Amino acid sequence: xxxxxxxxxxxxxxxxxxxxxxxxxxxxxxxxxxxxxxxxxxxxxxxxxxxxxxxxxxxxxxxxxxxxxxxxxxxxxxxxxxxxxxxxxxxxxxxxxxxxxxxxxxxxxxxxxxxxxxxxxxxxxxxxxxxxxxxxxxxxxxxxxxxxxxxxxxxxxxxxxxxxxxxxxxxxxxxxxxxxxxxxxxx
Length: 187
Description:
The protein has helices at 7-22, 29-38, 40-56, 62-74, 178-186, and strands spanning 76-78, 83-84, 89-90, 96-98, 103-104, 109-110, 115-117, 126-127, 132-133, 138-140, 144-145, 150-151, 156-157, 165-168, 173-177. The chain is of the alpha/beta class.
């Protein structure tokens, strides 16, 4: 996939708009500064995008330094080969690990202390767009979690989860539809 040279700025701008929309803030300079300096998840995402850009254009040392800063200041570990879609929200960065060549779709929400990584045989998860990964969850192995799914807190997902479903437990089992859960929460 070839992307235009301005992809870094476009991705960061869309990430910024998504963060501000989640907090019901209009895209003003003041709110942009708030996102940069007060929203750890946005800062981690920007650092990751800059790391990818540095790697793509063979800028030595910069990517390594940024990765070390991510780990030191935010306690998050994101692999160089991971793919993170636009507008992904790291609600809490501490303890988050995204390993190998994992793919996280656009608009996903990742809560704290999660692991997205390998489980035995080689391969990393593919997570569809607009999926919520609950606090303490583990998504392991060469599996696919479909779009609009919810992975419950502390769930251990080791098998595919169909789109729009909820996965809970250890090991995680599909326990219903996402829209049923959201309707129950609204009533």
